[in-house]
Amino acid sequence: MASIISRNAKHFHFANRCLSLHRLRLQSPSSSSSVLAGANLHDPAFPHLHSGLGINYLASYMRRLYGTTSTTPDSQTTASEKSAESNSSEGDESGKSNQSQDTGKPVRGGPVSWLSFLLLVATGAGLVFYYDREKKSHIEEINKASIEVKQGPSVGKAAIGGPFKLVDHDGKPVSEKDFFGKWTLIYFGFTHCPDICPDELQKLAAAVDKIKKAGIKIVPIFISVDPERDTVEQVREYVKEFHPDLIGLTGTSDEIRNVARAYRVYYMKTEEEDSDYLVDHSIVMYLMGPEKMEFVKFFGKNNDVDSLADGVIKEIKHYKKK
User: Fold this and answer.
1) Is the pLDDT of residue 2 over 60?
2) What does the pLDDT look like over 208-224, one tens digit per residue?
3) Is 193 among the annotated ligand-binding positions?
4) Which segments show compositional bias classed as Low complexity (predicted)?
5) Annotated binding-site residue? 243
6) Per-residue confidence at 191, pLDDT binned at 50, 70, 90?
7) What confidence score (pLDDT) does residue 115 get?
8) Whose CA is closest to 265, among 250, 278, 283?
9) Structural domains of the chain, with CATH
């Protein structure tokens, strides 16, 4: 670049000298010849300039000179602009191509796309709605069933009780008819019972006393489930230990089996060693009504004296209000 500028400056300087010589020739031929004599018109850098050429050729040379000096940087500027435009156009085209490629490709999101998220939400809402509807329907069915039970007919009483023929602790034959018109509280056991039967009979005796204090008369009854050992004498001595009003009943094996079946009582011999054995049996008391000795309610081992007495009093009072 520096060499080009130096050469163009040399051309420009020489051209100015030629123009000055040409003006001198027009004004004074004698003076101009001396100046031309000092000019080196045969310089190898100016092969076309010599003393015989006129102003037209010099003007043409000046145009060439100025054209050379002006086009060199302009061409470089133009080239740089074209290069920039080319780069810009290439960038635009690459950007457009990238946009077109991006447009064609599906947008990839995270692990869960919007569509799958919406499907998940819709499914969850459906499940919640279904569960809530089923829950309300189930609650309505329960309420309806409970209302029907309350408003429906009363449930029949359990088939507990029935006719029987036994012997009391005085040796007198008795049957269910002997207790018609009386409230009775019956317990099944055996006289050789080590602990449960004595405890239950003591509870029965205490409850009977409490019921009497309430102005209600009730007959306590003990029925043996061990006919082999519980004779009349054995039963008489046994019931005296608990309460003076307690009536003891016994009988043959068939008679005991029949009465136990009528009252839904379970009993069985266990741990038999010679004549010493235990009898496994149901631990329950039955409250029987005065009308043909019908079943009213049963009381289990979990009832204490107070709950047993209060339960009996409540049932009897409720019965009298009918």
Assistant:
1) no
2) 999 999 999 999 999 99
3) yes
4) 69-89
5) no
6) very high
7) 80
8) 283
9) 2-84 (no CATH), 165-320 (3.40.30.10)
